[in-house]
Design a protein that fits this description.
Layout: H1 6-23, H2 25-43, E1 50-54, H3 60-69, E2 74-79, H4 82-95, E3 100-104, E4 117-123, H5 132-142, E5 143-154, H6 161-173, H7 194-203, E6 208-222, H8 225-234, H9 236-244, H10 246-265, E7 274-286
Bound molecules: S-adenosylmethionine.
Length: 287
C-alpha cells in the first residue's frame, strides 16, 4: 500500500524537482504559456478582479494576470516550493507589479480569506495534491458567490506525445516506478478524465461547470535534439522511471538516450528545435 502523504509530495517538489525545473524552466513555463495564452481568452479576467493562483510555481501567470486585473485588482500566488517563490518574488519586484504577492502554502489546507476572490486560477497546479477535492473545496470557500474557478490541466498521456513518447521508450528498458517511489503527487494526468473532473468539482461544491474545452497545441521539447533528450531523461514520467530505477536506470541510460534521440530527430523543425503535440482541458466552474 502506498502511504505517501501530501507532505511527502511537497518534499519531493522542494528536494528533487527544483534543480530540474530551474534547468528546463524555459521549456516547462514556455509550453505552459502556449496553453494559458489561449485559455485567458475564455477566463476573461477583468480590471479590478481579485485572483488566486493555485500552485503558481515561478509566478509567471501571476504577473500576466496582474497586468490583466491592473493596479485596481489583486493577485495572490500560492505554492509549496520555496525556491520557486524566491524567483517569483524577485521577478515581481523587478516588474513593479504591486498588485501581485505570493505566499508559501499547501493549497489543500492554507487559510485563505473567505469569499474574497473573484476567480481562482491554476495552470498545471492542481494535479499534485493528495486530495484534489480538499484543495478545490479550500478554493471554493475563498471565492465570492458567483466567483469562478479557472483551471488548465493535461488531458490523457495518449493525447500528449510530449510526455508519452519518451515514457514509452523508457518503459521498454525499465520497470514502472513501484508503490514506494518518491513522487510529486498523483501526477500530471490525474485530471485527464472529464467525468472524474466533473465529479471532483461537484464534490468540492462547484455545481455550475460552464466550460470544458480541449486545447491542442504543439509544444517545444528542446532547442536542440540533445536538449530534448536531456529534458525527457530528467523531467516528467520518463524522468521519474529512470530516477526510480536507480543504478539500473543509469546502466540503461545510453540506449534510452539513443532511442529518444532518434525519435526527437523525427520531430525537428527547420530551425533545429524539437516540437511535439500536447493537449489540455481549460475548465471554468462557477461558485
Ligand atoms: C507543474 S507545476 C506548475 C507551476 C505553474 N502553475 C506553471 O504553470 O508554470 C505545479 C506546481 O504546483 C506546486 N504544488 C504542488 N503541490 C502543491 C501543494 N500541495 N500546495 C501548493 N502548491 C503545490 C508545485 O510547487 C509547482 O510549482
Amino acid at each position: 500500500m502506498n502511504t505517501t502523504t501530501n507532505d511527502d509530495f511537497i518534499d519531493c517538489w522542494n528536494e528533487i524537482l527544483v534543480p530540474k525545473w530551474n534547468r528546463f524552466r524555459h521549456l516547462l513555463s514556455g509550453n505552459g504559456a502556449i496553453h494559458s495564452a489561449i485559455a485567458y481568452k475564455d477566463f476573461g479576467f477583468r480590471p479590478g478582479d481579485k485572483v488566486l493562483d493555485i500552485g503558481c510555481g515561478y509566478g509567471e501567470t501571476c504577473l500576466e494576470i496582474g497586468q490583466q486585473v491592473t493596479g485596481t485588482g489583486e493577485v495572490l500566488g500560492i505554492d509549496c516550493t520555496d525556491a520557486f517563490l524566491a524567483v517569483a518574488n524577485d521577478e515581481c519586484d523587478r516588474a513593479g507589479l504591486r498588485q501581485v504577492r505570493f505566499e508559501l502554502a499547501d493549497a489543500q489546507t492554507h487559510a485563505l480569506p473567505p469569499e474574497y476572490f473573484d476567480a481562482a486560477f491554476s495552470r498545471f497546479g492542481v494535479m499534485f495534491f493528495q486530495s484534489a477535492v480538499m484543495a478545490m473545496r479550500n478554493s471554493h470557500k475563498a471565492l465570492k458567490p458567483g466567483g469562478t474557478l479557472c483551471l488548465i490541466v493535461w488531458r490523457t498521456i495518449r493525447d500528449n506525445p510530449c510526455w508519452g513518447a519518451a515514457k514509452e521508450i523508457a518503459l521498454k528498458y525499465l520497470p514502472p516506478p513501484g508503490d514506494a517511489a518518491r513522487t510529486c503527487g498523483p501526477g500530471p494526468f490525474s485530471w485527464a478524465d472529464e467525468e472524474t473532473d466533473r465529479a471532483m468539482l461537484k464534490a468540492a461544491g462547484f455545481t455550475n461547470i460552464e466550460l470544458f474545452k480541449r486545447i491542442d497545441a504543439d509544444v517545444r521539447m528542446g532547442t536542440t535534439v540533445e536538449e530534448a533528450v536531456d529534458y525527457q531523461v530528467l523531467v516528467g514520467p520518463s524522468g521519474e522511471i529512470i530516477r526510480e530505477a536507480g543504478a539500473e536506470g543509469q546502466r540503461k541510460l545510453p540506449v534510452i538516450r539513443e532511442e529518444m534521440a532518434a525519435f526527437m530527430r523525427r520531430n525537428v523543425r527547420a530551425d533545429g528545435t524539437v516540437w511535439l503535440p500536447s493537449s489540455t482541458w481549460a475548465i471554468m466552474a462557477r461558485k
